[in-house]
């Protein structure tokens, strides 16, 4: 069995190949139940979580991502709150094939899925990216968007100004046109990508200009949101998966509960976009919004790509 650490996992998932692998899994499909969540007792916090995200393609591969979320870890310097690994196995015999770094796999497949959606939904000439958030996923999003679009500007915002400045510095040192900004105003942005843990709207419908593509990554629970209902209602709404969005996507769930939209407002999911069943953006003036919560099929596609290319 192959053990792939963070560096090897990252090197095995280049952006173009990863987008192609995700496009393939959304075209072909696979079995991927909604994630299992089990509460874990914590000595220094109310509760932790064990998350299991399985997926399989008959006779080919099976995989499961095992995630521990331990909020109490934040009290211990240098210990992150989330740890995960991915186990890839032979789909016929069940023989374990590889264990990959789950955090790296998740960050990269999340960013690649956003950019895959943006190839259908953002204007091809998009040059200005506003990035809300400064964590690992935000870092991956900046790299993935810069690889695919002719970006001339990346503005980085975070509630913690020092964190935004640090990420902007890393990106600039890597040759990307990044700088920190002290507000989340979307004015002038062609693409706005948000990867935060916000429970209150950062983006409002009245503030987003025609032609903007909005990519919402962070609100993965019903009680979280990065946009107000007015933006969701104003935009053409796309999601990674309908079941996931209607069960977990706070931006969508709350807009429905507030009466701003109904489930029918979802124009298409990523399956339909990748299969050519919906054209995506229809005009240069259209506001498009992509809301993702993650799908275990993406993890499987990424793990297979990494394993077969290793």
TrEMBL record:
Similarity section: Belongs to the ornithine cyclodeaminase/mu-crystallin family.
InterPro entries xref list: NAD(P)-bd_dom_sf (IPR036291), ODC_Mu_crystall (IPR003462), ODC_N (IPR023401)
Protein's organism: Teichococcus rhizosphaerae
Assigned GO CC terms: cytoplasm
SUPFAM superfamilies: NAD(P)-binding Rossmann-fold domains (SSF51735)
MF-aspect GO terms: ornithine cyclodeaminase activity; oxidoreductase activity
Protein name in the entry: Ornithine cyclodeaminase
EC number: 4.3.1.12
Keyword Lyase recorded: yes
Signal peptide, first to last residue: none
Pfam family, one: OCD_Mu_crystall
Keywords on record: Lyase
GO biological process, one term: carboxylic acid metabolic process
Domain of life of the source: Bacteria
């Amino acid at each position: 069995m192959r053990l792939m650490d963070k560096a090897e996992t990252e090197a095995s998932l280049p952006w173009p190949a990863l987008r192609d692998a995700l496009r393939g899994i959304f075209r072909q499909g696979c079995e991927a139940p909604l994630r299992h969540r089990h509460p874990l007792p914590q000595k220094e916090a109310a509760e932790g979580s064990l998350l299991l995200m399985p997926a399989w393609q008959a006779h080919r591969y099976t995989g499961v991502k095992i995630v521990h979320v331990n909020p109490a870890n934040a009290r211990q310097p240098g210990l992150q709150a989330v740890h995960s690994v991915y186990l890839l196995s032979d789909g016929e015999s069940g023989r374990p094939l590889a264990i990959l770094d789950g955090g790296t796999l998740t960050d990269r497949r999340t960013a690649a899925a956003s950019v895959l959606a943006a190839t259908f939904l953002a204007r091809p000439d998009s040059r200005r990216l506003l990035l809300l958030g400064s964590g690992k996923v935000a870092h991956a999003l900046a790299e993935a968007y810069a690889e695919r679009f002719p970006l001339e500007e990346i503005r980085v915002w975070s509630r913690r100004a020092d964190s935004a400045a640090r990420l902007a510095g890393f990106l600039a040192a890597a040759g990307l046109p990044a700088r920190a900004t002290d507000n989340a105003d979307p004015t002038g942005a062609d693409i706005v990508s948000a990867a935060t843990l916000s429970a209150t709207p950062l983006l409002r419908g009245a503030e987003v200009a025609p032609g903007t593509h909005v990519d919402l990554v962070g609100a993965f629970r019903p009680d979280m949101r990065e946009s107000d209902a007015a933006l969701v209602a104003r935009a053409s709404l796309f999601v990674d998966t309908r079941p996931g969005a209607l069960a977990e996507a706070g931006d969508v769930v709350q807009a429905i509960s507030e009466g701003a939209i109904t489930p029918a407002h979802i124009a298409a999911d990523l399956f339909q976009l990748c299969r050519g069943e919906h054209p995506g953006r229809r005009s240069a003036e259209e506001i498009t919004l992509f809301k993702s919560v993650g799908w275990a099929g993406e993890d499987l596609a990424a793990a297979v790509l990494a394993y077969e290319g290793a």
